[in-house]
Amino acid sequence: PACEYMDCPKGKAWFDETTGLGGHRNGSSCSNRGLCSQSSGTCSCDGTYGVFEGAACHKMSCALDEDGVACGNTRGTCLTMKKLAKRTKLNGQAYPAAYDNEWDAAKIQGCHCAQPPSVTSDHGNEEDTYSGPHAFTWKPLTGYDCTRAECPKGDDILTPGQTEIQQINCTTNDGSFKLVFRNKATDAIPWDAPAQRVKQEIEKITTIGKVNVLYTNTSFNASACNKRSDTQRGWSNNTIQVEFLTELGDVPLMRAFAYTQYTGLGESINTTEYRKGTKENVECNARGICDRTQGRCTCLSGFNTSDHQGNIGQYGDCGFWNPSTQPYLVSSEGE
Which of 20, 175, 323, 333 could form a disulfide with 260 if both were Cys (CB 3.0 to 4.6 A apart)? Predict the structure, then answer.
């Protein structure tokens, strides 16, 4: 032979004889989904549907938008199943899954759609933006090609339901603690902080809107944490109760951990669910129609955008009910 022919890149075959239970032959020219040019050593992938790509035709292409751009360009990112698995969320909380060794883990790809950017709130921290006709912000994107927008979600005000309440129990007489909800942590909260301080710190994290914070010990100077048995500082018999006003349904349990100076014997901190949330968290509150081209709700007659607590607000959902025959106008609409 004159060595005039060049090999093409090889990969796991998409379609081939099995090498055993769950086995896929590795080292097939152009992964059996392309033609090898032996003069250049490059693969021409099967172009019938534009499904395969890569030097060895070893990856499945992501969906293209109307302009022929994968995942709508800035609307999403094309990732392998291995990478998508690590970005799995459960109930709004990161829940990475392992999909590393399966034969198609690095071959099949999908779109990971963009989520709304955050904005700086009045108190200086980052908060997720709202979406809807009165907010004019980006919407959470969805669909196989990230060209569809989700609509604001909320509770159906005409069906029964209750907010979730979680409890924090801590015992110490020094230091501070932090709370974590949906992978976002509060700043340090002093052990003897009043209820208003705890509320402020919780509402500053981006994954929570509004909460009520109550102490079971109603003394005017009650501390967040119970005092240890070897000291007279602080108050005993207190439990922190956090009611979620804008995060609906059965939300994930907050995680609490000691941040500074939890060093004494008998010091502890934990969280428990006191009352499970049963309010719905559905698009347009099941009282409107979602326009997925814009991510906006068109509410049924008598319903309007709410504050997630049944009042008129700026969430862009359909959670405010005005049973009057006269239409309800927000201030900007009435001007």
Answer: 175
